[in-house]
Amino acid sequence: MLTLATDIDALARFGRALADPIRCRILLALRDKPTHPADLADQLGITRTRLSNHLACLRDCGLVVAVPQGRRLRYELADARLGHALDDLRNAVVAVEADRTCPEADEKGCC
């Protein structure tokens, strides 16, 4: 059972990051390999501005870091264990029926 505020805060930050499909795609892409923002935007098919906003959120949550590489920045997961956690979560959701969606929070109070 989690009792420490720091544990709860860490899980809440991870949950906020995963609450957005684009941030999920970013995290999964970075799980595969560190990437420069321009390449990541192209890979995900989103604008650099939109990507920048999502990367800022992920940095603020402590899930990704920007590593200087010459005059460019390369993004990567802040900790390799996050990649394992993402894999564990992906494997856990296979129990969810494909035709089911999570109800909106205001409907049933979940998610």
Automatic annotation (TrEMBL):
UniProt cross-references to InterPro entries, sorted A to Z: ArsR-like_HTH, HTH_ArsR_DNA-bd_dom, HTH_Metal-responsive_Reg, WH-like_DNA-bd_sf, WH_DNA-bd_sf
DNA-binding recorded as keyword: yes
UniProt-listed CDD domains: HTH_ARSR
Record PROSITE patterns: HTH_ARSR_2 (PS50987)
Record domain HTH arsR-type: where: 4-100
Function, in words: Metal-responsive transcriptional repressor for the cmt operon. Binding of cadmium or lead causes the repressor to dissociate from the DNA.
Protein name (record): HTH-type transcriptional regulator CmtR
The species this protein was found in: Streptomyces armeniacus
High-level lineage: Bacteria, Bacillati, Actinomycetota, Actinomycetes, Kitasatosporales
